[in-house]
Amino acid sequence: MVKGVLFDMDGLMFDTERLGQAGWQQAGKELGFPITEAFVSRIRGRNETDGKAVAAEIFGPSFDFPKARAIRFAYVDRVVRTEGMPLKPGLLRLLDTLKQRGIPTALATSTRRSTAFDYLKIAGVEDFFPAAVCGDEVVHSKPEPEIFLKAAEKLGAEPSSCIVLEDSPSGVEAGFRAGCMTVMVPDLTPPDDRLRTMYRACVKTLEEVIPFLDIW
Questions:
Q1: Burial class (CB in 10 A: 0-12, 13-18, 19+), 49
Q2: Of 40, 67, 172, 214, which residue is least crowded by CB atoms under 10 Å?
Q3: How confident is the model at residue 44, as a pLDDT?
């Protein structure tokens, strides 16, 4: 029986990964570094510490990752605040269903808490997430399982009784390693053969998660 559902945020609830990718490319232009889609894919779903390590590996110690990250977030923030938060299909129906059934939810995002809750408020869904673990509250980011283990603990549920909803490979791996029932809802990165061994289901929209609540 499902005792909790743990939600990633960017790319899963909100269609912000495409904005983020454009923001990284803007940072590359401003700082004079060739930030590619491959780089963005490597850091997708990871926290600031891990992202900085990947950037140093690829671009060297002269790359100002905090400044690049700030440019990226400013770009996304500007678009979101002027145009609104782009919600992923099926999000509101899934959240309403979980609320009606009394199944608790938690946010488990690599984004820092202040930004994450700004986004939840802009989207009008903050009341659905009384529990949250954010990227600045874990030592080891995805694909390590720490964030989902902490989120399950906040709900008072065993990880094995929680569904993890993720769009990124690092997030899917983290959910798998946490022992959760992991569902992938792909965004920019499709699953490969390795990833297919880590999730229990792969669906196109969040609405398609609802039937699993009755059979798991």
A1: middle
A2: 214
A3: 78
Q: Kindly list the distances between the CA atom of residue 206 and the CA atoms of 3, 4, 78, 201, in Å, as whole numbers in the listed order.
A: 18, 15, 26, 12
Q: How far is Cα 155 from Cα 164, in angstroms, rounded to an integer?
A: 13
Specify the pLDDT at position 18.
Answer: 85
- Same domain, residue pair 160 and 203: yes
pLDDT for 73 equals: 85
Chain-centre distance for alpha carbon 157: 20
pLDDT the model gives residue 149: 98
Domain that residue 140 falls in: 4-15+86-215
Token representation of residue 130: 């009384």
For the purposes of burial, counting CB atoms within 10 Å of the CB of 101, is it exposed (0-12), middle (13-18) or buried (19 or more)?
exposed
Q: Name the residue among 75, 83, 80, 18 with its Cα closest to residue 44.
A: 18
Question: Cβ-count burial of 1 within 10 angstroms (0-12 exposed, 13-18 middle, 19+ buried)?
Answer: exposed
Give the residue numbers marked as catalytic.
Answer: 8
In a shared domain, residues 55 and 95: no
Model pLDDT, residue 193: 96
Amino acid at 132: A
- Alpha-carbon separation of residue 81 from 11, 70, 75, 109 (angstroms): 17, 16, 10, 20
Mean pLDDT split into 10-residue runs, the chain, 216 residues: 96 90 90 87 78 88 89 90 94 98 97 92 96 94 96 98 96 97 94 96 98 95
Q: 161 and 74, same structural domain?
A: no
**Does residue 136 contact residue 155 with C-beta atoms inside 8 Å?**
no
